[in-house]
Design a protein that fits this description.
about 475 residues; alpha+beta; 8-stranded mixed β-sheet; two-stranded antiparallel ribbon; 16 strands
Length: about 475
């Protein structure tokens, strides 16, 4: 169509006047069914009962209603809240409506503007979640899509580009969410009142912080890009030197894959409460990140108290596992770790690794007991020359979900064992002799506790904790 194409100018400008919208236009820009919007108007939440038209302000109101319904509030409750003379709510809605004052384009229009096939552009939109409000795109969306078109037209494989875009979209949404959530919890909730003046003060604080966000994101991206480029160069050198076999399948790579988690974390969280359990997770996360960085690994992801980590070879992976066991065992009042490590061919997809060898490593961590570091024979053979470790044969085991038995070994550090530690029977916390908060003898057996709370839970129901 050409560079002067204007699209649907739904609104007059960022600070422009309120404009009327038809019923169909409102449905188009909010993604709501027309009959749903009519029911909201009848409830007195959007529009006017005496007027068939809506206004641009109703776009923001409709989106807010949509979200509140998904938060579990009823339409009646929302209607009551909207009818309250709440200055903050009206202030918020006004700001939202101003944010939505921009030209909008349908997906077919966008495809024609940026020069992509409709099906190709639709794949990008669906993969990244661009169309959050209805099935329309704005100027920012088109700017991103033009970059995608340049890449595809230059010969970059569309499937590879989709993987990159999915990871970027997920990572940036998470980065944006953590900024908003922490600000809400640590700034907004601490305000003494919810007046417009308080919100204005909060916005002033955000205005000072916001310029720091993009430089920080770029800084960490560049650091990550430098490390990724170095690793990519090493992979090329390995292939060119004939040190590794070049895979014919894009994304296949041999790596050591490790899973590590905390033993008894579920009872610990139940006994200690979410806040104290989160503090334990913070300490654990610091341990893992320090050890992984020192041993040239990469954290793929964290789910709860579990980490998935990859290493280019087994020496570094074994070293990291031993380091985690050593540090966690000497940490005051801390649960034991469980570790599983395997080596094999993995499939790299969207910043993650998948395949049967990933499943084996995960099952090893599930199989491990407290303080146990289980490895497969593939790891033992590649790291047997590593000084400072003994590989103690466990035997062949059939792991959950796997048909064939797997030869397993326990990796144990060579040297004197650490100080004896005792275990709290309630929360599973491990303690040195000087860290015990309370002791209790039952039927000739002494039990140690990390806190009076755990002691009280034990006294209340000792049979629940004595095995």
């Amino acid at each position: 169509m050409g560079g002067d194409y204007k699209g649907h100018h739904v609104f007059a400008g960022a600070a422009g006047p309120v404009r009327s919208l038809t019923h169909d236009e409102l449905a188009q820009y909010t993604g709501e069914k027309p009959e749903i919007l009519l029911s909201w108007r009848e409830a007195g939440i959007i529009g006017s009962v005496s007027d068939d038209n809506f206004t641009t302000n109703d776009v923001g109101r409709a989106r807010l209603v949509h979200e509140l319904l998904h938060y579990g509030h009823t339409l009646d409750e929302i209607g009551v809240a909207f009818r309250q003379p709440d200055a903050v709510l009206q202030h918020y809605l006004e700001g939202m409506s101003q944010q939505l004052t921009r030209p909008m384009y349908s997906v077919p229009e966008a495809a024609e503007i940026v020069g992509l096939e409709l099906e190709e552009l639709r794949r990008i939109v669906d993969a990244t979640g661009m169309c959050e409000g209805g099935d329309m795109l704005d100027e920012d969306d088109l700017f991103c899509l033009r970059s995608c078109a340049v890449a595809i037209n230059a010969g970059y494989p569309p499937d590879a580009l989709l993987q990159i875009l999915r990871v970027y979209a997920d990572a940036m949404r998470r980065a944006a969410e953590v900024s908003q959530r922490t600000s809400h919890f640590y700034l907004h909730q601490q305000m003494q009142d919810n007046s417009v003046e308080s919100f204005d003060r909060l916005n002033e604080t955000f205005a000072k912080i916001e310029p720091l966000v993009e430089p920080a994101l770029l800084y960490f991206f560049r650091k990550g890009a430098m490390k990724a480029a170095w690793e990519d160069m090493l992979m090329h050198l390995e292939e060119e030197a004939g040190l590794v076999e070049k895979s014919e399948t894009p994304g296949q790579i041999r790596r050591a894959i490790m899973f590590v988690d905390l033993a008894s974390f579920t009872p610990l969280a139940e006994a200690m409460g979410d806040l104290r359990a989160a503090a334990v997770l913070d300490r654990f996360g610091t341990m893992v990140r320090k050890a992984v960085q020192r041993c040239h690994g990469r954290i793929v992801k964290q789910i709860g108290d579990g980490f998935m980590i990859v290493f280019p070879e087994c020496f570094s992976a074994v070293s990291c596992g031993l380091e985690l066991e050593r540090v966690s065992s000497t940490e005051p009042q801390f649960p034991a770790v469980r570790i599983g490590l395997h080596w094999g061919m993995l499939l790299y997809r969207e910043g993650d690794y998948v395949g049967s060898n990933v499943n084996i490593a995960a099952r090893l961590a599930d199989e491990a007991h407290r303080h146990q570091f289980i490895v497969t024979d593939e790891v033992r053979r590649r790291a047997k020359a590593y000084e400072g470790v003994d590989f103690v044969r466990i035997g062949r085991r059939r792991l959950k979900g796997l048909a064939a038995e797997v030869e397993l070994f326990e990796a144990k550090a060579v040297g004197p064992e650490g100080d004896e530690r005792v275990i709290d029977p309630v929360c599973g916390m491990e303690m040195g002799q000087g860290e015990v908060a309370a002791r209790l003898s039952v039927d000739g057996r002494e039990h140690a506790f990390c806190s009076d709370d755990c002691l009280k839970k034990f006294v209340k129901s000792p049979k629940s904790y004595v095995k």
